[in-house]
Inverse folding.
């Protein structure tokens, strides 16, 4: 009769349960490539990024992520044959070419914590410059063609955890939100242009922790979604 050390079976079962919980709690991220009608998805129970052709309602490509780390952000570049960018919980960003379906064409780790947002640099959608933001509160502008060179620009946006970030698709603007209920707007040189923060006055706007941000694609309008269910719209037009 084979002897089994005490606790081994229990530890194995606990480890198995923990892995299942981690797998089931993985983020699900997606991005829509409107010009070509393609939907990019990653996360949940899948170990690959899936590219769906919405016109034919068929799976166009399946790109293995080649990692067990949960994806936390995704960006489908505007051009049909450009790489797709996926950010992960360990602070890394992987670039995939939907035409090859093979291994990532580029792997970088610009952050120490989970990537909150990754996007192409505004105005250079067909170039190699990428903007990424992390839960640690920092933002990096870097070049996927030369990751060894380090970031082109780094912004220390928040001292507390960053909960959301947005990059304007055309203007050199980005917005971030923190767990301390601060919303900040920066240009790509790192200059802070605006700050919206919680106020206790009945005359001021009350905001709680923000879970999502989005810019209007053709205007200076920022929309925020708070964890208390409120949606706020901010405009640069003071008239």
């Amino acid at each position: 009769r084979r002897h089994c050390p005490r606790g081994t079976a229990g530890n194995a079962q606990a480890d198995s349960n923990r892995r299942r919980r981690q797998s089931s709690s993985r983020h699900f991220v997606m991005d829509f490539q409107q010009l070509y009608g393609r939907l990019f998805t990653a996360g949940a129970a899948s170990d690959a990024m899936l590219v769906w052709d919405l016109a034919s309602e068929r799976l166009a490509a399946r790109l293995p992520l080649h990692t067990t780390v949960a994806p936390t952000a995704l960006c489908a570049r505007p051009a049909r044959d450009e790489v797709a960018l996926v950010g992960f919980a360990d602070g890394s960003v992987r670039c995939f070419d939907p035409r090859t379906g093979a291994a990532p064409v580029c792997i970088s780790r610009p952050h120490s914590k989970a990537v909150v947002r990754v996007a192409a640099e505004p105005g250079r959608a067909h170039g190699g410059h990428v903007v990424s933001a992390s839960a640690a509160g920092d933002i990096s502008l870097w070049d996927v063609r030369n990751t060894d060179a380090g970031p082109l620009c780094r912004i220390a946006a928040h001292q507390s955890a960053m909960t959301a970030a947005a990059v304007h698709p055309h203007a050199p603007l980005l917005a971030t939100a923190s767990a301390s209920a601060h919303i900040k707007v920066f240009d790509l040189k790192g200059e802070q242009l605006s700050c919206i923060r919680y106020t206790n006055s009945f005359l001021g706007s009350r905001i709680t922790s923000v879970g999502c941000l989005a810019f209007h694609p053709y205007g200076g309008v920022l929309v925020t979604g708070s964890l208390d269910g409120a949606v706020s719209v901010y405009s640069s037009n003071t008239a």
Helices lie at 8-24. The chain is about 5% helix and 45% strand. Residues 164 and 228 are 15 Å apart (CA to CA). The domain at 25-156 is CATH 2.130.10.10 (Methylamine Dehydrogenase; Chain H).
